[in-house]
Amino acid sequence: MSGQPVHHRFPDEPGGERVPRTADGIAAALSPARRMEFYRELGTAPLDNVEAVLRRWWCEAMLDTDPDGDRITTAALDGTLPLTSVSSVLTRRQARDLPVD
Hints:
Elements lengths: L1 E2 L19 H7 L2 H13 L5 H15 L4 H10 L5 E2 H10 L6
Antiparallel strand pairs: 1-2
């Protein structure tokens, strides 16, 4: 199994994360139409599903605000995007004491 590498700042690096991991941070990073979709989904989510909704939309906001987003999309569509194994991603995350579940 392999996945696409994700290049973003980690909270302990200068500049921190592009999108704060809060409902307001996520909403601010989305376009107006997507922001309404986010709030609609968040507002109708059962309490035990709110964290999953926030996590999903944070990922969407990170992708939407990625300065390399267009280049990455083009490379993915062209089949030229470099891949990395899941095990190497897990190893890097463990080395940084980041969650792996």
